[in-house]
């Protein structure tokens, strides 16, 4: 009983620490592109975290479709290790993708191909299991001219560099510093409780085995007296 309670407590606290120490990082600067370009909206989990098999949702919080109220407009949904096209907006079904290889490192950056003026706006990335979200601003400018020539964004298995300027909740750093002493305290507490339970069981077993011998010796003691 005690061991089950200790295990449940440690698991709960450990999972809370894992959630608290991971942050979802986007870009503090808008991503600027011209109509027809392929873009990459940067977003990753820090520290590295295997996102394969986890739910990843990209949506447009500013978008309001006539006749639909309080409904999330999904740009891309990754769930059960596959793309949930039925949940996505039709205009993004054939133009968006994630990198399967990058997901293993927690890189959930979204690729959008052939952007148009309708894609201009905020994009929100959300990972339900971490309860973390991040936003990236996409600016589609017809007058935008690239300063350097770059290769088109590949469809899949793209390894992307981390953005130079990023946005992150500073509270995560505080949690990171607290994580190690709290984890050590939990481990020590568990060891102490387990030791107490084992010692109590040992004492009970010794008393149980000694009881018959004491009862047999009691008559002899009475005769001698």
Quick tags:
single chain; 225 residues; alpha+beta; 6-stranded mixed sheet; 3 helices; 12 strands; disordered N terminus
What would you note in describing this structure?
The chain has helices at residues 2-21, 100-103, 171-224; strands at residues 23-27, 31-33, 39-41, 44-46, 56-59, 74-79, 82-83, 96-97, 110-112, 121-127, 132-140, 166-167. With 225 residues, the chain is α+β, with helices and mostly antiparallel strands. The chain has a six-stranded mixed beta sheet with strand order 2-11-10-5-6-7, with no helix packed on it. A hairpin with a 2-residue loop joins strand 6 and strand 7 (82-83). Helix 1 runs antiparallel to helix 3 (171-224). It is elongated.
- Can you tell me the overall shape? elongated
As a whole number of angstroms, the C-alpha radius of gyration is 29 Å
Through-space gap between termini: 47 Å
Total count of strands: 12
Q: Summarize the main sheet.
A: 6 strands, mixed
Helix- and strand-based class? alpha+beta
State the helix count. 3
Uncertain regions spanning at least 5 consecutive residues: 1-18, 155-180, 221-225
H/E topology pattern? HEEEEEEEEHEEEEH
Give the overall pLDDT as a whole number. 75
Question: How much β-strand is present in the residues?
Answer: 15-25%
Biggest sheet strand line-up: 2-11-10-5-6-7
Helicity level: 25-40%
């Amino acid at each position: 009983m005690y061991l089950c309670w200790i295990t449940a407590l440690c698991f709960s606290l450990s999972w809370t620490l894992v959630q608290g120490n991971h942050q979802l990082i986007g870009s503090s600067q808008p991503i600027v592109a011209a109509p027809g370009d392929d873009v990459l909206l940067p977003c990753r989990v820090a520290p590295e975290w295997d996102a394969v098999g986890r739910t990843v949702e990209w949506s447009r919080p500013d978008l309001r479709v006539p006749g639909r109220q309080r409904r999330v407009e999904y740009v891309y949904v990754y769930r059960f290790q596959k793309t949930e096209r039925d949940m996505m907006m039709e205009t993004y079904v054939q133009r968006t993708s994630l990198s399967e290889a990058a997901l293993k490192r927690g890189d959930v950056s979204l690729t959008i191909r052939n952007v148009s003026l309708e894609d201009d706006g905020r994009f929100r990335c959300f990972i339900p299991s971490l309860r973390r979200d991040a936003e990236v601003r996409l600016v589609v400018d017809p007058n935008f001219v690239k300063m350097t020539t770059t290769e088109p964004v590949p469809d899949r298995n793209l390894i992307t560099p981390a953005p130079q300027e990023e946005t992150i909740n500073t509270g995560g750093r505080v949690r990171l510093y607290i994580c190690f002493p709290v984890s050590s305290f939990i481990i020590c507490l568990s060891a102490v409780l387990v030791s107490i339970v084992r010692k109590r069981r040992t004492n009970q077993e010794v008393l149980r085995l000694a009881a018959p011998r004491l009862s047999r010796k009691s008559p002899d003691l009475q005769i001698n007296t």
